[in-house]
Design brief:
Elements (H helix, E strand, L loop, with lengths): L3 E2 L2 H23 L4 E7 L3 H16 L3 E7 L5 H13 L5 E4 L9 H5 L13 H8 L8 H14 L6 E5 L6 H10 L3 E5 L6 H6 L3 E4 L17 E4 L3 E5 L2 E5 L4 H4 L5 E2 L7 H19 L11
Parallel strand pairs: 1-11, 2-3, 2-4, 5-6, 5-7, 7-8, 8-11
Antiparallel strand pairs: 9-10
Helix pairs in contact: 1-10, 6-7, 6-10
């Protein structure tokens, strides 16, 4: 029996449509247009593609898009000065600095220079602390997208056993905090976990975010479990390049109850949740009710 495929592309389209509806209402009732500023330093090809896609999707939902492209050799002081100007600009509700940064720039220093209320990536140490203590925070986009899909599939997550494989600050740790806040029993596992296969087999919800191609085979999956595959790895197979997740899809799909594919699963949700976060930041900045279902 094959698992239900959780279509992240279709889900992301629904999220973007909801965001667009809320943006139109803000413009009509409040005269407000949410604004997202994206800062790109250097010419990393993948980053250029991401920034271009973010700009397109931002404008499609009716938001203002502000793109700042800086040379790779930009001094740290100049980048921090730009962030300070964006922090002070009332037309900018969300600020995103595209990672990775050139090696001479301190990414932690740069991220923590962003106003936490405008930190739509959710990486600022203040947002990390707020999320960890169950307070209102800006939530990292990828884990937020995973949570939305899980809530949509399960309804309530209360009482379910969740295993997150991966302990990164960007996905693993915030994912665990979000699941804990939804009353799951949560284990954070990783590549050095003893008896990792057995730990995974206990999971009603298995989130794979370890960055290793097809590391988790189908026989590590509990029958009927929901598998969220965050990994996106480029490999060569039969002489051709292919994108695969951290889960061996062909074997896991035979065991799981539901699973996200790669590509077309978690990936499209990340930009959709970036737009949702920008909308949320705008509403919070103006003391307006937050849109339901678009944040944690």
């Amino acid at each position: 029996m094959s698992a239900k495929i959780i279509d992240g592309k279709a889900f992301a389209a629904r999220v973007r449509a909801e965001v667009a509806t809320h943006v139109a209402r803000l413009q009509e009732t409040q005269g407000l247009t949410p604004g997202l500023a994206v800062v790109l330093v250097g010419e990393d090809p993948a980053s250029q593609v991401y920034v271009k896609n973010k700009g397109i999707q931002t404008r499609e939902v009716g938001m203002n898009s502000y793109e700042h492209k800086l040379p790779a050799e930009t001094p740290e002081a100049d980048l921090l000065a730009l962030i300070a100007r964006l922090n002070a600009d009332p037309a900018v509700h969300g600020i995103l600095v595209q990672l990775p940064l050139p090696k001479h720039l301190d990414a932690d220093l740069v991220i923590n220079a962003i106003d936490p209320a405008k930190d739509v990536d959710g990486f600022h140490i203040s947002n990390v602390g707020l999320l960890g203590t169950g307070q209102k925070a800006m939530v990292p986009c990828t884990p937020l997208g995973c949570l939305m899909m899980l809530r949509d599939h399960h309804g309530s997550l209360s009482g379910l056993t969740a295993v997150v494989v991966g302990r990164s600050n960007i996905v693993g740790k915030p994912m665990a905090q979000l699941l804990l806040a939804d009353s799951c029993t949560v284990t954070i596992a990783h590549s050095r976990t003893k008896d990792l296969a057995e730990v995974c087999r206990r999971a009603d919800i298995l989130v794979a975010a370890v960055g290793r191609p097809e590391m988790i085979p189908g026989d590590w999956v509990k029958p009927g479990a929901t598998v969220i595959d965050v990994g996106i790895n480029r490999i060569e197979r039969d002489g051709k390049g292919k994108l695969v997740g951290d889960v061996h899809f062909d074997s896991a799909v035979q065991v799981a109850g539901a699973i996200t594919p790669v590509p077309g699963g978690v990936g499209p949700m990340t930009i959709a949740c970036l737009l949702a976060n920008t909308l949320t930041a705008c509403c919070r900045a103006h003391g307006l009710a937050e849109p339901e279902g678009l944040t944690a």
